[in-house]
Amino acid sequence: MRRIIFIQLSWPSRVAGWVALIIPISCSSVRAPVLVDTIQLVAAGRLAQGTAVHFEIMGGVVEVWSKHGIQIMVLFSLVLQLLLFAIPIARRHRLMERRKHLARLNNLVLWLAYQLADTTATYALGHMAIISSPSGERRQLMALWAALLLVHLGGQDTITAYALEDNRLWKRHLLTLLVQAAGVFYVIPVNRGSNPRLSFAAALMSILGVVKFAERIYVLRFSEDMNKVGDLVSLLAPPTRRETYTRRVALMQQEKALKLAHNLLEFSMGQFIDAKVSLSQYPRSIIMAHYDDDDTLYMLVELQLSLIHDKLYTKSPVIHTWLGCLIRAFSWLATAVIGTMLVFHFVRSSSSRNYSGGGFDAAVTLTLLAGAFLLETASLLKAAGSTWTVQILDRIRWDGRMVLWFRRLVKAAESNRRWPGFIGIYEYVFEVIKCDWDFSSSIQKIEPDTKRYVLGLIRRMVHECRGDEEKLRISRGGLSLQRLPVPPQLIQNKITHNEFDESFFIWTFVSASFVSHPSILHMDSTNPLCGLRDAINQISGYMDYLLKKKPHMLPPPVRHRLKYRIIYERENGGKNDIYQELIRGGFTEAKLEGVLGVWVEMLCYAASYCNRESHARELSNGSGEFITIVWLLRAALFKASNPDDDDTQESEN
């Protein structure tokens, strides 16, 4: 029989020892009993030695945590606040346009910081409440740390909601923050002491924390209702102008373009809140002046999405009010006064020798105050140099040239207001061959030619509808198919009279077969039709990506099983009549434009019938989806080309 040696160890070592001592050995106990015993004894000895080292390390960690756990948690809370302030700014930077993986990492870190910020503060406050009260000045320092945690719970100006649902859950946030605030106001009196400076600092920071706490809840509640956001946008809109804008803006003059975007913001916000908003004379003249300038039109819409994001996901609704300005001035001044006062206190009294925490507590306190002062200073400068500040000064007839000079100096508009330009692509061919595996999706930079073709086709759609907005909204391929050599009855049976998802799947296979034809697939790179082919692949792949990854961005119903039925019919000799009609007579530029035109019409149709909240929800990443840009472009071009009667009367007056 096999011999097993048991060594008296602690229970974790015994549990782990079973793994090493009962491993089957390929030696028989009859042939080599001594060898078996020796191997198992050596294994047990090494296990015991490793376990001892493990417990020694864990013992050191436990000792450090028991002595400095609170300090570690409050410092970690400060780090999370720094991340919450910096990452929303960094992910808009132009560097993200070139490094998509860095953008993904930023979003992941931001999500973790947002989720951990409140939890960390709650844990630290609970830890302060249950531990035995220290003696001396450390008790008052703990009260100050609790007040600083309350300031942290107020959040940063750059983010109040990670997702649109956070605004709707403002009551839950209110309850959570009230419980956390109650913990703060329990810890502060319990740890009160005799030092008046520290008591004053804790009291003042508590007041500041309550103010920021209330501000965060107010912003969450305010941003829940898009109608209120729309009213605020109208209130902060530039003053109404009756003159006509005629001067074109060069592509690199983004500060001027940002100012023009503010003039169009009321119209774009109206699309999000489902309000019938008309273009007045001045905004309409802006669109018409750049009607054939693709780059500027895209830039204006991208800048507007960035501004709408500010109103839905940041403290912007409060920052640019008189109350918001007073809060920021008060918080900066209070942090500066407390920091200066405590620096002199620690230097003059040499208090690092008077309490058990030693100099580490003083260092932690000064680090927290330095971090708070840095955040308040950055928030104040960001608010003062914001494009919203420029618009407010313009509205009240104050000179905002100093702010504009500062913004141009730091290149604020160029660095963090543009759409990154990435879209998801889902390859249909990979999906069929690899049985719907997820790795066929990818993130690609949308080509400039693709954007140019899309905008050109939108212009043509607007022109062909001749003022009929309903015709423009319901068109999902009919306008472009009329220019293709396809019988009208076939178009109605396959595309226009089916549900959107069925038409979508049918056209997916038609266009995939069309661009996969050897004459198109192996086209020379110098051929001018290559741009159209690549645009078809990108837009069709993007629509497939929305269907697979973000079906909420498409009009219902989205029935994935239809796809497999169409695949089955196609693979089993089913007719592909539209494809046969398309390839008849060769491949021309008109045919490629027609195929792409159907995709653009479907994209516009999906954008129009998509839930408006889905468009707003995608703005949580700071930029939004390309389908949202197409949606706003189509609406703006149609309104500019077909002014309402009220707009006409206004321009005549």
Automatic annotation (TrEMBL):
Keyword Protein transport applies: no
InterPro entries linked to this entry: DUF4220 (IPR025315), DUF594 (IPR007658)
Pfam families listed in its UniProt record: DUF4220, DUF594
Domain DUF4220 residue range list: 111-426
Chain ranges passing through the membrane: 68-87, 108-130, 142-162, 174-192, 198-219, 325-347, 359-381
Keywords linked to the UniProt accession: Membrane, Transmembrane, Transmembrane helix
Name this protein carries in UniProt: DUF4220 domain-containing protein
Species assigned in the record: Panicum hallii var. hallii
